[in-house]
Specification:
Elements lengths: L7 H11 L10 H23 L5 H5 L6
């Protein structure tokens, strides 16, 4: 199974997800590698969540709340 490509945005998302107190730009090399590994592990979860965000507003307005 191919590993997903990890972008800097994915790494920044993982940094926020981990709630690290150190700014992203000031991360040391080992910590940045750990954040990159976290981003690689969570990328499928993040992308799946972003792909399923379609909401049918017409149905919602009609009272059908089952998405």
């Amino acid at each position: 199974m191919a590993r997903p490509l990890i972008t800097e945005d994915d790494e920044r998302w993982a940094h926020r997800y981990l709630r690290l107190s150190v700014p992203f730009e000031a991360l040391s090399v080992p910590v940045r590698k750990a954040v990159a590994a976290t981003a690689a592990a969570l990328a499928p979860r993040l992308r799946r969540r972003l792909a399923n965000t379609r909401i049918d507003l017409k149905r919602r307005a009609a009272g059908d709340l089952d998405d």
